[in-house]
């Protein structure tokens, strides 16, 4: 019986560890994402709807379906004096992840959703 409990406990810890590590990683990047959001959308806190948020043009460099995020790079955003950069953000609605692949050109809107900066809208560019 003890061996069985030990095996079950080990299985649970193995399953929880990647989730805990992912959560810790997201928490570590959120301060940078919040700074990015404040620069891209200074009125982010006062917006009444996602449709009012500015669009950012970007290119997908990686899609991680398991953690619900996309890595993208965007060029300089001259209207706010932001340099080109690469960053990773989670999606609020995971349905979009299945249609993305590296190299896709997209426009995104981001917002603080429950304390985490997430992509809230996406348009494909052709």
Biggest sheet, spatial arrangement of strands: 3-2-1-4-5
Total DSSP E strands: 5
- CATH superfamily heading: Copper binding periplasmic protein CusF
> Could you say which structural class the secondary elements and strand pairing correspond to?
alpha+beta
Which terms would index this structure?
alpha+beta, globular
Describe this structure in words.
The chain has one helix at 2-40, and strands at 56-64, 69-74, 85-90, 105-113, 116-125. By secondary structure, the protein is of the alpha+beta class. It has a single domain (2-125), classed as Beta Barrel (OB fold (Dihydrolipoamide Acetyltransferase, E2P)). Strands 3-2-1-4-5 form a 5-stranded antiparallel sheet. Strand 1 (56-64) and strand 2 (69-74) form a beta hairpin. The radius of gyration is 18 Å and the shape is globular.
Question: Summary?
Answer:
By secondary structure, this protein is an alpha+beta fold. It contains one helix and five strands.
